[in-house]
Amino acid sequence: MSATSGFLLKALIIMMLLQLPLYASDSGHAPDTIPVPNIQIWNIDSHIYKKLPKGAIYDRTSPQIPRDLLDLIEFIREWYPRLREQLWTDETLKTDAKIDIFLRHKDENDPEALAHTTSTDSLIIYDGYLKGLKHKSGGLIIHELTHLLQSRYRQEGFRRPIWISEALADYQRFTSFEAFTFEMYLKRTSEAIKHKNIEKHFIDKTCVVYDEDNPCPTFWEEGYSYSYQPIHTAGMLVMIEHRFPGTVKKIHRRMHDSVKDSFDFFNKEFSDYLYSETGKGLQQNWCEYLAYVDNKTEEEVLQDCLPKVGWLWRWLQ
Ligand SMILES: [Zn+2]
């Protein structure tokens, strides 16, 4: 064995013992120039754009492209690089070069769906959203573009929580694009609790198997995992981001790295990660967010959400 390979082998063993990642970490810094993707729109079977021949492809140079679709292209050309910069990872994404958008009438399996990202990182937009497109704010598109940036981990739902992907997408939508303040998030969650029966919706969607020993978790306990209405978890992320700026970007990168470097990152690992970044785990951060929703003062929030483990809790009992 040569001196060089001996050194490399020892370095490798030390890295494995210390559980250091074997891959170089991302630089974490976006370059000065962010790519602007080419955007192509394919009319598959939209009823809104009936006059566009099925299968026809349009880009921003096509003379026949309807005005609202041209505006959509320009909107994505403006916002994709902004979001890419905010959620930068060094790895090149397919959508850095090209984004295909398919216009469809509706999703047969989910007729209420307005848009989806596909497993091949294309974007499907349904007539439910295309109707009156020029009056739409674009918030939904921001949510979907964030999903395209999550390409590495979005497909790994069984080992990477979907609810984190959804909450990050709503965070970008409401904080970066719709300029929501923390109070606006609190109001949305408060309304969902008081007037929109979210507790029942949460249990209907999430409580599949339960018995006396395994009672259903309530929205108050595990509502952060409610991926059908991710705005509430996005609100929790805003609270964390106010206290520890940069955490949202770090969560995105951690999700990305968990796939790149093959480690599990589910609720427990996410909670441990939050603890290492904020000194509080997932349950406690969620409790504190809901205490703010409940109009508690900062002091009361901290009091209400003392971790119910450890000597301090036992001593307080
Ligand atoms: Zn989504």
Structure, explained:
The protein is 52% helix and 7% strand. By secondary structure, it is α/β, with parallel strands linked by helices. It folds into two domains: 38-149, no CATH class; 162-316, no CATH class. A five-stranded mixed β-sheet has the order 2-1-3-5-4. Strand 4 (115-117) and strand 5 form a beta hairpin. Helix 2 (67-86) packs across helix 5 (139-149). The longest helix is centred in the N-terminal third of the chain and has 20 residues, at 67-86. Zinc ion binds at residues 143, 147, 166, 169. Residues 143, 147, 166, 169 line the site of zinc ion.
Structure ligands: zinc ion
Give the count of structural domains.
2
Number of strands: 5
Helix/strand structural class? alpha/beta
Unreliable residue runs:
15-24
Taking all Cα atoms into account, the compactness measure Rg is 22 Å
Name the overall outline.
globular
- Helix fraction bin: 40-55%
Largest sheet: 5 strands, mixed
Termini separation comes to 63 Å
Placed side by side, the strands forming the largest sheet appear as 2-1-3-5-4
**Helical stretch tally:** 16
